Known about the structure:
The protein is of the alpha+beta class. The chain contains three helices and four strands; from the N terminus they run βαββααβ.
Amino acid sequence: MSMQFxxxxxxxxxxxxxxxxxSRKEHIAIGDKMKAAGNYLMGVALLxxxxxxxxxxxxxxxxxxxxxxxxxxxxxxxxxxxxxxVEILPCRVGPTFLK
Length: 99
């Protein structure tokens, strides 16, 4: 049985946007692979009042927290220090959204 998680990540204020843009293509590519494997249910970029990206929110599905942590070790935004603060909470996606 799998577990679902909400990952909320806020970018570093200094240099975060530049590192985000430099890493975005690789971040999207790993997300596409995760989506195809059924691990990535939803992802959005958080925006500031000027519509600049300042963070991310993802709904992920993994067999356990360990697999989520393993993914974070290779996630480009983690590896390249785009995200400063990451909060992970278990969640349960309603059946309406899993169709």
